[in-house]
Write a structure and sequence with these properties.
By secondary structure, the protein is an alpha/beta fold. The protein has one domain: Rossmann fold, CATH 3.40.50.720. It is 54% helix and 16% strand. It has nine helices and nine strands. The strands form two sheets. The protein has a seven-stranded parallel β-sheet, with helices on both faces. Helix 1 packs across helix 7. The radius of gyration is 18 Å and the shape is globular. 40% of the residues are buried.
């Protein structure tokens, strides 16, 4: 298992479930400080208790990442006390059926939520000249595979934003890694989606190990599973006129599955 000893004070958004919770579990240990943000009080409390049982000092905040004022007030104060050396930005939403309202919610959480998380802590990271930022994107950022366009679009934005941020902060001593997972076994995958997957989703704790290894190396991009990543990259490199028919079939399959549910 990869050592996480270089990360002693971590901020994690989306910590109440999924990869955020899995990363909290991996990072928890004696002399570690964790600042966990989420919207589900019961689940967030359960994650915090597990981490405290491992010896970590944990504080939790019920904050919506889309609320810029609340995020600034919470994180500015927390960073002054805890001096984060890892900022893990994993809060996100996905909806099965897309409407103007769900598209708006997706952008507010997956895009604006990233900005609202980075803005309050970036000055402290730069001033200290150290630290790592991890942004959770998706393999969907490279190729639309039949799901809601707002989700894939938001994750494509996170990927490009993260790559640019990495270049901007490199000379300041701050690392940035963009995480592009395929399907991971989290609450975001409903039973209907699970039945259509070509392979079982990766366990969240296994995904967290891969992420942690990449963060320690300051990897620019952390993508997995390897087979899915290679397939997506291959499709992304093909000209649109070659892949359009396959894309249309995926959208039709998604519509058929939605109508049957």
């Amino acid at each position: 298992m990869t050592s996480s000893s270089q990360f002693m004070s971590a901020l994690i958004t989306g910590a109440s479930s999924g990869l955020g919770a899995a990363m909290a579990d991996k990072l928890a240990g004696p002399d570690r400080s964790l600042c966990l943000l989420g919207r589900n009080a019961e689940r967030l409390s359960a994650v915090a208790e597990r981490c405290r049982a491992r010896g970590a000092k944990v504080e939790t905040h019920l904050v919506d990442v889309a609320d810029a004022d609340a995020m600034h007030a919470t994180l500015s104060e927390a960073d002054e006390r805890l001096r984060f050396d890892l900022v893990f930005v994993s809060a996100g939403v996905a909806f099965g059926r897309e409407t103007p309202d769900t598209a708006r919610q997706t952008v507010e959480t997956n895009v604006l939520g990233v900005i609202n998380t980075i803005a309050p802590v970036e000055p402290g990271l730069i001033a200290r000249g150290t630290g790592q930022i991890a942004l959770l994107s998706s393999l969907a950022a490279f190729r639309v595979l039949g799901g809601p366009g707002s989700y894939a679009g938001s994750k494509a934005w996170v990927r490009i934003y993260g790559e640019a941020l990495r270049g901007q902060l490199a000379s300041k001593g701050v690392g940035v890694s963009v995480i592009c997972p395929g399907f991971v076994d989290t609450p975001m995958i409903d039973e209907r989606t699970r039945k259509t997957l070509p392979e079982p989703p990766m366990p969240a704790d296994q995904a967290a190990d891969l992420i942690l290894d990449g963060l320690i190396r300051n990897a620019p991009r952390i993508s997995f599973p390897r087979k899915s990543a290679l397939q997506i990259w291959w499709l992304a490199m093909r000209p649109a006129w070659l892949t359009d028919r396959r894309t249309m079939r995926r959208f039709q399959a998604a519509r058929d599955a939605s109508e049957q549910s």
